[in-house]
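Bit of a strange request maybe. I'm writing a small parser for C-alpha coordinate strings and I need a real example to test against, not something I typed by hand. Could someone generate the C-alpha coordinates for this chain?
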Amino acid sequence: MSCEPWQCAEVAATKKANPITKPEVAVALIKRAARPILVVGSNATERCMEGRLLIDFLIDLAKTSKVSVVATAHIVAEFLKRGYEPAGFMSAMDIGNRLVDPDWQGLDGKGHPDLAIFVGLPFYMEGLILSGLKHFNPDLKTMTIDNLYHPHASWSYPNSSLDEWANNLKVMISKFEGGK
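Reply from user aminoacidic:
Good idea to test on real output. This should exercise your parser:
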Protein backbone atom coordinates (compact mmCIF):
# COMPACT_ATOMS: atom_id res chain seq x y z
CA MET A 1 0.00 0.00 0.00
CA SER A 2 1.37 3.36 -1.05
CA CYS A 3 0.63 6.88 0.19
CA GLU A 4 1.63 8.53 -3.04
CA PRO A 5 -1.11 10.18 -5.12
CA TRP A 6 -2.55 7.74 -7.62
CA GLN A 7 -2.40 10.45 -10.30
CA CYS A 8 1.28 11.24 -10.95
CA ALA A 9 1.15 15.06 -11.02
CA GLU A 10 -1.22 15.46 -8.06
CA VAL A 11 0.67 17.62 -5.56
CA ALA A 12 -0.91 18.43 -2.21
CA ALA A 13 1.45 21.23 -1.17
CA THR A 14 2.55 21.12 2.47
CA LYS A 15 -0.53 19.42 3.90
CA LYS A 16 -1.23 15.83 2.80
CA ALA A 17 -3.90 13.37 3.88
CA ASN A 18 -3.24 11.27 6.93
CA PRO A 19 -3.16 7.64 5.81
CA ILE A 20 -5.84 5.32 7.17
CA THR A 21 -3.76 2.28 8.01
CA LYS A 22 -6.60 0.24 9.52
CA PRO A 23 -10.35 0.33 8.86
CA GLU A 24 -10.93 0.72 12.61
CA VAL A 25 -9.41 4.23 12.32
CA ALA A 26 -12.01 5.19 9.69
CA VAL A 27 -14.80 3.75 11.86
CA ALA A 28 -13.60 5.71 14.90
CA LEU A 29 -13.50 8.95 12.90
CA ILE A 30 -17.02 8.38 11.57
CA LYS A 31 -18.37 7.51 15.02
CA ARG A 32 -16.75 10.62 16.50
CA ALA A 33 -18.37 12.91 13.89
CA ALA A 34 -21.64 14.56 14.88
CA ARG A 35 -22.96 15.00 11.33
CA PRO A 36 -21.10 12.82 8.81
CA ILE A 37 -22.16 12.65 5.17
CA LEU A 38 -21.22 10.03 2.55
CA VAL A 39 -20.88 11.26 -1.04
CA VAL A 40 -21.13 8.41 -3.56
CA GLY A 41 -20.03 8.86 -7.17
CA SER A 42 -20.75 7.20 -10.47
CA ASN A 43 -17.94 4.65 -10.20
CA ALA A 44 -19.89 2.85 -7.48
CA THR A 45 -21.59 0.76 -10.16
CA GLU A 46 -18.40 0.13 -12.13
CA ARG A 47 -16.07 -1.18 -9.42
CA CYS A 48 -16.53 -4.86 -8.60
CA MET A 49 -14.93 -6.73 -5.70
CA GLU A 50 -15.53 -10.31 -4.66
CA GLY A 51 -18.43 -10.60 -7.10
CA ARG A 52 -20.25 -7.57 -5.64
CA LEU A 53 -20.45 -4.02 -6.90
CA LEU A 54 -19.07 -1.22 -4.74
CA ILE A 55 -22.58 0.24 -4.38
CA ASP A 56 -23.69 -2.94 -2.57
CA PHE A 57 -20.87 -2.56 -0.02
CA LEU A 58 -21.81 1.12 0.40
CA ILE A 59 -25.49 0.34 1.03
CA ASP A 60 -24.44 -2.08 3.78
CA LEU A 61 -22.10 0.56 5.22
CA ALA A 62 -24.77 3.27 5.10
CA LYS A 63 -27.37 1.05 6.77
CA THR A 64 -25.08 -0.07 9.57
CA SER A 65 -23.41 3.31 10.21
CA LYS A 66 -26.55 5.44 9.78
CA VAL A 67 -24.51 7.99 7.79
CA SER A 68 -26.54 10.20 5.42
CA VAL A 69 -25.82 9.38 1.77
CA VAL A 70 -25.69 11.84 -1.11
CA ALA A 71 -25.90 10.13 -4.49
CA THR A 72 -24.28 11.90 -7.42
CA ALA A 73 -24.86 11.55 -11.14
CA HIS A 74 -27.19 8.67 -12.08
CA ILE A 75 -26.39 6.67 -8.95
CA VAL A 76 -29.65 7.58 -7.21
CA ALA A 77 -31.52 5.22 -9.55
CA GLU A 78 -29.08 2.42 -8.71
CA PHE A 79 -29.67 2.94 -4.98
CA LEU A 80 -33.44 2.91 -5.50
CA LYS A 81 -33.26 -0.28 -7.60
CA ARG A 82 -31.62 -1.92 -4.60
CA GLY A 83 -34.29 -0.71 -2.17
CA TYR A 84 -32.17 1.99 -0.50
CA GLU A 85 -33.22 5.64 -0.55
CA PRO A 86 -30.32 8.08 -0.15
CA ALA A 87 -30.84 11.21 1.96
CA GLY A 88 -30.29 13.35 -1.13
CA PHE A 89 -28.95 13.48 -4.65
CA MET A 90 -27.15 16.23 -6.55
CA SER A 91 -24.18 16.70 -8.80
CA ALA A 92 -20.74 16.16 -7.29
CA MET A 93 -19.76 19.78 -7.89
CA ASP A 94 -22.96 21.00 -6.26
CA ILE A 95 -22.34 19.02 -3.08
CA GLY A 96 -18.77 20.35 -3.09
CA ASN A 97 -20.10 23.92 -3.29
CA ARG A 98 -22.64 23.31 -0.54
CA LEU A 99 -19.98 21.86 1.76
CA VAL A 100 -17.96 25.07 1.33
CA ASP A 101 -21.00 27.26 2.12
CA PRO A 102 -21.01 28.04 5.87
CA ASP A 103 -24.74 28.82 5.76
CA TRP A 104 -25.77 25.43 4.35
CA GLN A 105 -27.50 23.43 7.07
CA GLY A 106 -27.09 19.97 5.59
CA LEU A 107 -29.56 17.72 3.82
CA ASP A 108 -31.99 17.74 6.74
CA GLY A 109 -31.61 21.42 7.68
CA LYS A 110 -30.29 20.55 11.15
CA GLY A 111 -26.67 21.64 10.79
CA HIS A 112 -23.59 21.68 8.57
CA PRO A 113 -21.80 18.34 8.17
CA ASP A 114 -18.55 18.05 10.13
CA LEU A 115 -17.16 15.07 8.17
CA ALA A 116 -17.54 14.49 4.44
CA ILE A 117 -16.69 10.97 3.25
CA PHE A 118 -16.10 10.50 -0.48
CA VAL A 119 -16.12 7.30 -2.50
CA GLY A 120 -16.65 6.26 -6.10
CA LEU A 121 -16.10 9.58 -7.86
CA PRO A 122 -13.70 9.84 -10.80
CA PHE A 123 -10.25 10.46 -9.29
CA TYR A 124 -9.64 13.84 -10.91
CA MET A 125 -13.07 15.16 -9.89
CA GLU A 126 -12.77 13.94 -6.32
CA GLY A 127 -9.32 15.52 -6.14
CA LEU A 128 -10.64 18.90 -7.29
CA ILE A 129 -13.53 18.84 -4.83
CA LEU A 130 -11.23 17.83 -1.96
CA SER A 131 -8.75 20.55 -2.87
CA GLY A 132 -11.52 23.14 -2.84
CA LEU A 133 -12.77 21.93 0.53
CA LYS A 134 -9.25 21.92 1.98
CA HIS A 135 -8.69 25.54 0.95
CA PHE A 136 -12.13 27.08 1.37
CA ASN A 137 -13.54 25.13 4.34
CA PRO A 138 -10.52 24.09 6.40
CA ASP A 139 -12.71 23.26 9.42
CA LEU A 140 -14.50 20.46 7.54
CA LYS A 141 -12.79 17.09 7.92
CA THR A 142 -12.76 14.98 4.76
CA MET A 143 -12.14 11.29 4.24
CA THR A 144 -11.92 9.05 1.21
CA ILE A 145 -12.69 5.37 1.47
CA ASP A 146 -11.61 4.62 -2.09
CA ASN A 147 -8.67 2.34 -2.79
CA LEU A 148 -6.72 5.27 -4.24
CA TYR A 149 -4.80 7.73 -2.05
CA HIS A 150 -6.19 11.27 -2.23
CA PRO A 151 -3.65 13.76 -0.85
CA HIS A 152 -6.17 16.62 -0.55
CA ALA A 153 -8.39 14.77 1.95
CA SER A 154 -7.89 15.01 5.70
CA TRP A 155 -7.82 11.18 5.83
CA SER A 156 -7.40 8.68 2.99
CA TYR A 157 -6.73 5.00 2.52
CA PRO A 158 -3.41 4.33 0.76
CA ASN A 159 -3.36 2.90 -2.75
CA SER A 160 -4.45 -0.70 -2.40
CA SER A 161 -5.66 -3.71 -4.34
CA LEU A 162 -9.33 -4.52 -4.82
CA ASP A 163 -9.02 -7.41 -2.35
CA GLU A 164 -7.58 -5.11 0.34
CA TRP A 165 -10.27 -2.53 -0.39
CA ALA A 166 -13.07 -5.09 -0.09
CA ASN A 167 -11.59 -6.30 3.20
CA ASN A 168 -11.41 -2.71 4.53
CA LEU A 169 -15.07 -2.10 3.66
CA LYS A 170 -16.16 -5.42 5.20
CA VAL A 171 -14.31 -4.64 8.43
CA MET A 172 -15.91 -1.18 8.55
CA ILE A 173 -19.37 -2.68 8.08
CA SER A 174 -18.76 -5.31 10.76
CA LYS A 175 -17.55 -2.68 13.26
CA PHE A 176 -20.76 -0.69 12.76
CA GLU A 177 -22.89 -3.83 13.10
CA GLY A 178 -21.83 -4.13 16.70
CA GLY A 179 -18.39 -5.66 16.48
CA LYS A 180 -15.66 -4.08 18.56
